[in-house]
Amino acid sequence: MVNFTACKIAFETNATNLELYSYTGLTPNLPLGPGRPYLISEQGCRTLCGTGADKYPWATAANTITTWVLPIIGLLLQAPFESNQIAKTFLATCRWIGAPIASLSYIFWNIKITGKCAITVDMAVDYNAFPGPGSEFSQLRDSFYILSVMNQYALSTELEHAGSSSTERFLRVALFDNDLVLANPSKGMVHRREKLAASLRSGRKRGVVPIFISTLWFLLSLAISIHAAFGNLGVNATAHNLAIGLLLGWLPVLTLSSITDRSPGSADDVRRKLNRFLSHVRQGLQANTTNPRYKSIQLPAYSHSDNYHYFTSFCGQARSRWHYGIAHAILTGTEDAFAAAHGRNWTAHHNARTLLIRAPPATRHSNIWFDFRELWQIMGATALVGCSIFGSFIISYFTPTVGLGCRSGGYLIFFVITLAHFLAESAVWWIFPRPSKLRERIGWAFTVMEMGGGGYINFGTSAYYKAHIIAVYWTTGTILSSLAMGAGFLYVVAEWCTQSHMWTEDYGDAMAGLKATRRFKKYTIWFRCVPDWVITKFKTHRPRCLGEKKGRRSLVWRWKTSQT
After folding, report:
1. What is the pTM of this model?
2. Burial code of 198-218, b = ≥16 C-beta within 10 A, e = fewer?
3. Which residue from 165, 175, 326, 333 could staple onto 362, CB 3.0 to 4.6 Å apart?
4. What is the per-residue DSSP string for 400-444?
């Protein structure tokens, strides 16, 4: 054991030791002035103090455990794990912790897609219209909610091989066609969609309150650490406790995101229900082959007629790399066909239902392409993780001994690795946009990545650093990380509130929530004008070679109905 207190006395009270072992090199960012503490060189520290360890006392270690370790464990336990899936739980945890930028980018994009489904439903009628159960609005609410659930699952190989146009047309018929005659005429398309949507809503995971409580526990721990740290400026123990909290500022946002990008109670059960529903649609299409309305649909080919798999693995909450989902293509086609041009009350269009079913594909090649609006989600995820890590880096860097040490260096390395991981993953998706065995092998390599000169010693006390500029650095780091975390919280909670009318079981409560959503969006519309303007300008001036139709229109939330 090393006793640094005794070592300090031996160094500072002995003129020979001061002459031999004082550090005389550069000390960037270390406060200078009268009363500055002596600095001992690394060689002097090894000679006078030894090479052992000076362990923190149990009280300090226990404080870190109770302040951070337990809240972090409690937060992780509220993550959207699948029940009775040990291997998947382990891999998902590695994914979320080891690649936070990539994970949050996927989660934010899926929240954006479900939000687009909610806006499309909201904009289907006038601002002050709240149609009752059984109305066309109610049917569209069911259809777009089913679409948002489908978006969390991977398409089967057979559905992929059927072709992007046929796949989209097939799913459009399943979601929006009311006239397709099924094998059991007494249970038509509207009835089956209504039954499926009700089942999906009832099977949606509950437990939102425990997630909020775990998040509040984390925030309480952070507040305690901030109070303790600024009461003991310059003390290592309090600084590192605070840095740990700021470093993981993105984690409660990721966990809280699961209240919006929500997993079902049983992913396999939901998949079976979706596949069963699409099997009924397939049988109806096979029985109506002479109808010119369905002639262009190429049904997926299966070797076994009694066991169709249209959707396979559950990919929600960034569980699977490169998962894009089918909802974006359908929503984009709908916007392009008529909804964006018509705006609010788009169901008043004389051919709305037909265009919903037969809207042309919005992409040039497939159902998967890079939409440059994803850059908002990517930049948001990068800023959240980057600011959280950089805030903790600032505090550790400017805590004596000032400079790049084990903790500040570790934080920097973590950010570099997670950013490089995301860039490499994005590059692979760009090169191999379609599923393949090669891309799968590269994915397993990413899984492995997700798992896993002389200096000086400063004997100065915290009293010295309280009187100097260290408070400015600590304040800067704390504010930077806290603002990023707070912005993440506000975004997720706002999306949860404004989308909840889609998945609320009770129709009356759903309409009450929709009314509150419209009021909120009406009075905060000014806040969304800037990103909408940037997107519009970018789409207008960028070249066609970037993979999306130039001038494609988007359905933007408005409270006024256009006069047509």
Report:
1. 0.84
2. eebbeebeeebeebeebbebb
3. 333
4. SSPSS-HHHHHHHHHHHHHHHHHHHHHHHHHH--S--HHHHHHHH
Q: Rounded to whole angstroms, how far apart are CA atoms 497 and 486?
A: 16
Q: What are phi and psi of 3, to 5 degrees?
A: -110, 100
- Residues whose CB is less than 8 angstroms from the CB of residue 91 and which lie 6 or more positions away in sequence, other chains included: 319, 447
Sign of CA pseudo-dihedral 496, 497, 500, 505: positive
In the chain, the amino acid numbered 129 is A
pLDDT at 492 over 70: yes
Calculate ∠ Cα 280-283-286, nearest 5°: 155
CA–CA distance, 183 with 283 (Å, rounded to integer): 7
- pLDDT tens digits for 179-195? 888 877 778 899 999 99
Q: Which of these, 163, 121, 128, lies nearest to 143 by C-alpha position?
A: 121
Bridge partners of residue 264, in order along the sequence: 204
- Give the per-residue pLDDT at 363: 47
**Chain-centre distance for alpha carbon 6:** 50
For 113-166, give the secondary structure using H, E and C: HHHHHHHHHHCCCCCCCCCCCCCHHHHHHHHHHHHHHHCCEEECHHHHHCCHHH
User: What amino acid is encoded at 555 in this protein?
Assistant: L
Residues 6+ apart with CB under 8 A from 394: 473, 474, 476, 477, 480
Cα–Cα dist 203/83, whole Å: 13
Contacts of 261 (CB under 8 A, 6+ apart): 80, 107, 110, 111, 114, 316, 317
Output helix, strand, coil percentages for the chain, rounded to the nearest 5: 65, 5, 35
Q: Are 164 and 366 in contact (CB under 8 A)?
A: yes
